[in-house]
Write a structure and sequence with these properties.
Radius of gyration: 20 Å
Strand order of the largest sheet: 3-2-1-11-12
Distance between the termini: 47 Å
Largest sheet: 5 strands, mixed
Number of helices: 11
Number of strands: 12
Structural class: alpha/beta
Shape: globular
Length: about 300
């Protein structure tokens, strides 16, 4: 008698929170994921990095080297590298964002926030004349105390000085444009602003598994704006926008947009400096880029949390 068809085992999905230049934390987290997940499951896992690879920590260069190495070291895995707001700003400074598709200049992005230029001391060095707003803010010279992070600013409002230093140049120097290897520039240029995945399984409180669509975006999707409209401009990388809210928003991107409640959709992000799991809204950023806080990953379908410190 023929064996009944057994349902396919759900694919393992690893959702890796913000790394922020901490290579040792990343290496330890990866090692702990490898120990925690069954070898056959880890070998074929989908690994989604939720963005913010640079700034705050001292080892951005080494972090990007590690991430670039993964596809050849783990050829059966699938790797998705999302763009975070810090990565967007670094790419803006390096001049590797796609040009606005309407032919406008990046200087058009300054206007909405011009009142902040003096306070944030935007970059005004080589190449600034047609640099996206976030690149100028990223390489600016912000001084004082960051009350939100409870720490001093590290060079700029983005805490970018450690990234400059990891490539061997002082903060705010245009020499970074030449110091960053082409391989790293390609990695940054290729980062996706959003990723959609079908047939992702997640354990639910009632028991058992729920099969869902998954949308991964660094900060979240805006409430009050159509989801399809947002997905369209995120996929197109619309660099006319001064501040891309799904990469950098806070309260306005915290919840799942109501229209996604019609069909089960996981929305996963990093960015927010905390871990929050409510229904299908997953926020994975245990460390927030702080030196003494861990880096975390969430494993699906089990919703097991793994840290670099485990």
């Amino acid at each position: 008698m023929a064996e009944p068809n057994t349902p396919a085992k759900p694919r393992t999905v690893c959702l890796v929170g913000d790394i922020h230049g901490y290579i040792t934390k990343l290496q330890n987290l990866w090692s702990n994921l490898e120990k925690t997940i069954a070898p056959s499951d880890f070998q074929w896992a989908l690994v989604i990095f939720l963005g913010d690879y640079c700034d705050r920590g001292r080892n951005t260069k080494e972090v990007i080297n590690f991430l670039i190495s993964l596809p050849s070291r783990y050829p059966n895995q699938s790797h998705v590298f999302l763009c975070g707001n810090h990565d967007f700003a670094l790419a803006a400074f390096l001049g590797i964002l796609p040009s606005p598709f309407d032919g406008s200049e990046f200087s058009e992005t300054w206007k909405e926030y011009a009142m902040n230029e003096e306070r944030e001391r935007w970059y005004k060095g080589e190449g600034y004349e047609n640099m996206h707003l976030q690149g100028r803010r990223w390489a600016g010279r912000m001084v004082g105390f960051n009350h939100a992070k409870n720490t001093e600013y590290k060079g700029s409002i983005y805490d970018a000085a450690p990234t400059f230093e990891s490539y061997g140049v002082p903060h705010g120097s245009a020499d970074l444009m030449r110091a960053v290897p082409d391989e790293h520039k390609k990695f940054l240029a290729d980062l996706v602003w959003v990723h959609e995945e079908d047939n992702v399984s997640i354990e639910i409180e009632e028991g058992g598994l729920k099969n869902c669509k998954l949308i991964a975006v660094h900060a979240g999707l805006e409430k009050g704006k159509g989801v399809e409209e947002q997905l369209k401009y995120l996929k197109a990388k619309d660099t006319r926008i001064s501040k891309v809210e799904p990469l950098s928003g806070r309260k306005n991107v915290w919840d799942i947009p109501e229209e996604l409640s019609k069909s089960p959709t996981i929305v996963v992000s990093g960015h927010h400096g905390k871990v929050h799991m409510e229904g299908l809204r997953l926020i994975i950023d245990r460390g927030g880029g702080l030196e003494n806080s861990p880096v975390a990953a969430l494993v699906l379908p089990s919703k097991k949390m793994v840290h670099d410190t485990d």
